[in-house]
Amino acid sequence: FKPSGELTRDFGALCNPGQTDWEDTLRDEHRYQRIPHLPAQINDLRDFQPGKPVFLSEYGVGSAVDLPRQVLHYEQIGLGQSEDADLYRGFYNSFLADWKKWNMAETFGTQENYFRLCVAKMAGLRLTGMNAIRANPVCVGYSLSGTYDHGSCGEGATGTEFRDLKPGATDAMFDSFYPLRLCLFPEPYHVYRGGKVQLKAVVANENALLPGEYPIHLQVIDPDHRTVFDKTVKVTIQDPQARPEQPMAIPFFTEDVVMDGPSGQYQFAAAFVRGGAAAGGTADFYVTDAAEMPGVETEIAIWGDDPAVAKWVAQRGVKSHPLAVDRQSGREVIVVGRTPAADTGQWRGLAEHIARGTTAIFLAPQVFQKGDNPVGWAPLKNKGRLHGGADWFYVHDPWTTKHPIFDGLPSGGLMDYVFYRSLISDVRWADLEAPAELVAASINTSFTYDSGILIGVYKLGAGRFVLNTLGICERLGEDPAAERLLRNMIRYAATETNKPLADLPSGFEEQRKEFGY
After folding, report:
1. Fewest CB within 10 A of the end CB: N or C in the chain?
2. Stated pTM of the model
3. How far is CA 473 from CA 29, 374, 422, 425, in A?
């Protein structure tokens, strides 16, 4: 650089052995991604092509830190009062408060079981990302982040600070780095019966195959183990001395396939017919038959204007009417979308409806935006805060209880990142008192400690309201899980509509003022 700061010459990313100059023949990239990876993140890892070969020197997915085991390890080596032990003990105490407040034993049994599941989850997340990296034709090298946990966080791909192997991680690394690998990509991960899934397949080959032509058998297997798609495609491997060199990743199949089969988990599978013993070769996705969705018999009241909710109500023939906040003849089910009502009188009327026995379903936290306060309209004295942003390296572990809102869906443990991929929220309610009914929450022990509520049911007078941060409105009509959750919420709320309307509770006016309206 000149004294003025001007760059005097360009320089490259590498210097080969025996050379003295930097060569501009390679790009060094760091490409951390939002977790769970949506199609945009998968495409970015698999398809980015900056015009030069790429060395991906940083990318990874961390895991939870097993806090009680970490503290015990320090005690075991006689360092139970060390600074590091005190740090982890502080995180663990925060976890213990949530464990008790949210009655997590009913869902996980023991703390040890909870952390075992959280740490083990990382292997699948790592494999998803590395599957995409291996399928990128211009990615010629990858340095994973990182090998073992360090710096008071769960960065390690294979082991903890005390060199304990993380469950499934070694197998995931073996599979993803195998010299010959079949990388499969079904999109989307969850479709309605009769919808299309795009199937992509790539051979990752690091000089493992001899030159020649190789048939690869592609299948889709339904939940009853029947083959619903069957095709064999040939891939040609060039002589390694040929120029230009053949890329180490060879895309060889893309097709949109209609999935007209039963509800459940499907597997996209591939295998060499002869000549190649590959790793990889499987990817799961889900199909849901809309005809099996539970019915919505209760007429709902809609408050606010959300196009996604209005479209769903019209398409599904759900009986509805606009909520009249100035009158109430009985208990109702109120569905509230994303559009905030900036009128104090509207919020006051809504609160009165709830307090007299109605259940309101707040489908998205955006509705509570009041000026520059994201939670200003929430009907809570202690409004807490909406916390977080997109997970990337240091992941949260979202989980659900067994609750009617998750009826017919995977629940009662960690959320399935395939089934719920497009719904998992980037934000959560933090610093709130425990709800009357906790439905779903999220905890991060990968870096410091952070936790919050994803779905909770709160009481207000004789009524109740549901807070939700999952992406239901954003995915209605696209992801069957979004529709099933909304149907379940309405059916759950309808269980109170047969009761008589209650009087406003004593002290309600004072309580309403505490809400700010």
Report:
1. N
2. 0.94
3. 35, 18, 11, 12
